Amino acid sequence: MLIDSLAVRPLVWTDYRLALLFAVFIPLTLLVWSWMQKSEPISLLLTIYWRVASLLAITVYLLIGGLPIGFITALLAKVLIPIGLWFWVDLNEEIREQPKRSLNLGFNAWRWAISVYCAVGVIVQLLFIRCAFSSVLFNSDACQPWLEPSLMFKDYFHAGLTRGFLGFWGIVGLVIYAAYLGYFLFVKLGRRGRSALHQ
């Protein structure tokens, strides 16, 4: 059963603010910090993170276009992000063996925090996953608030462009993402396993 519509809007905007904090601002700061500290394992893992997390950006454009598949990609992004951060055996070992500097402590704290955020986010997204499969539900007061942050993003950064045009680029991005993910799963993973350092 969907959450009561009166509770949806505050939930959506809380999720949006947490996503900006944990999925954008903190990892961007950590990436720049890792470059400055010349920490190759953390830099590489954060680069992998940004590739995986690009599905969140694709989701924004899908929701701008009013495409219900955005509910599915939002769920998948929150499943894939923790996997991408913890999957690599060699990077985990390298990071564990580095001196306990501020960067390492900050990175590990963020990695745990975003993993918890994503786990809670998966539960929340599952409550609304039916919005992707029913046009009646998609247009309901319970589902439409999920589009509001994306539409605000459009107003700020793409005011002169139509929703349909931006939604089209969301689909293009999703096709490219799916192709790259498929290539990784069926080709690269078999060749190198859970090693990220030796590509």
What would the average pLDDT be, to the nearest integer? 92
Radius of gyration: 18 Å
Form type: globular
**Beta fraction of the residues?**
under 5%
Question: What's the count of strands?
Answer: 0
**SSE-based structural type:** mainly alpha
* Main beta-sheet strand count, sense and barrel state: none
* Number of H- or I-type helical stretches: 8
**Helix residue percentage:** over 70%
Distance between the termini: 45 Å
Helix and strand string, N-terminal first?
HHHHHHHH
Number of domains: 1
As residue ranges, the low-confidence spans are none
Written overview of the protein:
This protein has 199 residues and is mainly alpha-helical. It has one domain. It has helices at 5-37, 40-64, 69-86, 89-97, 102-128, 135-138, 148-157, 163-192. Helix 1 (5-37) packs antiparallel against helix 5 and helix 2 (40-64) crosses helix 7 (148-157). The longest helix is centred in the N-terminal third of the chain and has 33 residues, at 5-37. The termini are far apart.
Fold topology:
Layout: H1 5-37, H2 40-64, H3 69-86, H4 89-97, H5 102-128, H6 135-138, H7 148-157, H8 163-192
Helix pairs in contact: 1-2, 1-5, 2-3, 2-4, 2-7, 2-8, 3-5
Summarize the structure in short.
The longest helix has 33 residues, at 5-37. The mean pLDDT is 92. This protein is mainly alpha-helical.
